[in-house]
Specification:
Helix 2 packs antiparallel against helix 10 and helix 4 crosses helix 13. About 50% of the residues lie in helices and about 20% in strands. It is built from 13 helices and ten strands. It has a single domain, classed as D-Maltodextrin-Binding Protein, domain 2 (3-Layer(aba) Sandwich), CATH 3.40.190.170. The chain has about 350 residues and is of the alpha/beta class.
Amino acid sequence: MTNTSVMRLACAAVMAAATMFGAGAAMAEVKAKIGHAMPDTHPQAAAMTKFAELAATYTNGNVKIQPYHSAVLGSDEKQLQAVQAGTQEFYIGTLAPLSTRVKEVQVWDLPFMFQNQKEVYAVLDGPSSKKIFEKLAPTGLVGLTWSGMGFRNLSNSKHAVTKLDDVSGLKLRVMANPVALDTWKTIGANAVPMAFSEVFAALEVKAIDGQENPLLHMYANKMQEVQKYISLTNHVYTPVALVASKKFWDTLSPADQEGVRKAAIEAGLLQRKLLEEGDRDVIAKFKEAGVSVEPVPPEELAKIQAKVKSVVTKFTPQIGDEFVNGFYAEIEKARAAAN
């Protein structure tokens, strides 16, 4: 064989290898969906769009994620089930539908734990939140990051709530978890569990009187069109979790997993920032829309807090004494550091 023939064969081999490498790179590209309940005007939608962008960047284009806003992929519960089954790759939202299987999730529904967002963020980034993600593993989910949604406040279409007795008899939508249901029943409300995607229509036809959610969440979902009164209670802080389907996650290379996780963390931090910015002016927007927004007087809020202490006492053993005590210890540590 001549030198020329050898060179030709070598070149052919190099070209074939390059072609195979290119085909392998193309085959490595995967497409995925992330769904959530918030409309495209909500900070969470902006953060998830950024998540998709960052994931593509950090995986060198291997992982292409398409965000789906406004619950078009279904309710929180349906999306979580889809992610567990592997028919949906990512979800961000409340983990409340899993509260009967992962009891530690219920700790976030215990009323009046936090005084400010700094305390919340310290716990979101702390060991208790990591433990909850560890508990998710047997359910078919991989926890990527925690982000914020905001302090929950009460709205209704009947009357201003300025004291404990004003809650009595109000038909309120609450999240479908035992702690939330018991909290509002203890206060005197007629608590109705309902998927959030159904709430606006129920309020519109007066099937329910009110609901409770973070202010920005309410405004983005046009609660100002069906509610007349908002009472500032900050009774619970609701976080959201960005989770992946374990079936999908296990198909990714370690490098792509690292890239997606990095993208998730950065998008979660962006969401917190956007929420804080949005909260600064949303009260004025509500008032411009004709909604009364008033704080519950401190002395009346103290009565509500005293009333629901029994809920904390009741559910602490069910959630786990050691876990709840550790959770509160993280809050106290953050509070002490701030002071």
